[in-house]
Amino acid sequence: MVDQDALNMQIRKFLKQVGVTSQREIEQALQQALSDGRIQGGEQLRLRMTLEVDELSLRHTIDGRLDLSES
Predict the structure, then answer these.
(1) How many CB atoms are closer than 10 A to CB 32?
(2) E strand or H helix at 31, and its extent?
(3) CA 53 to CA 31: how far, in whole Å?
(4) Nearest CA among 69, 68, 50 for reference residue 60
(5) Among candidate residues 16, 12, 26, the one with its CA nearest the CA of residue 64
(6) Of 3, 24, 26, 70, whose CB count within 10 A is highest?
(7) pLDDT tens digits for 1-50?
(8) Phi and psi (nearest 5°) for 45?
């Protein structure tokens, strides 16, 4: 039997790591793109995050936008 509380904590820990590292990666890539002139700063960027768990045959994708004109 799976301990639901322990499982919940493991999932939360993983998602926290995903959130923190993803934010850092986006911020670094954004700064580099601004420095390189690939973007100007008023664009809307399309975001996509995909979660995969092979053993569960799970593939979950979330699409979103980052509106740089509101920054």
Answers:
(1) 11
(2) helix 4-36
(3) 31
(4) 50
(5) 26
(6) 26
(7) 899 999 999 999 999 999 999 999 999 999 999 999 999 999 999 999 99
(8) -100, 140
Global confidence as pTM: 0.86
Beta bridge partners of 44: 67
Contact 41, 30 (CB under 8 A): no
Residue 71: pLDDT above 80?
A: no
Detail the DSSP E strand segments found in the chain: 44-53, 58-67
What tokens were used for 57?
Answer: 């045959």
Tokens of 38: 């690939």
CA 5 to chain centre: 25
Q: Which of 67, 71, 70 is nearest to 43 (CA)?
A: 67
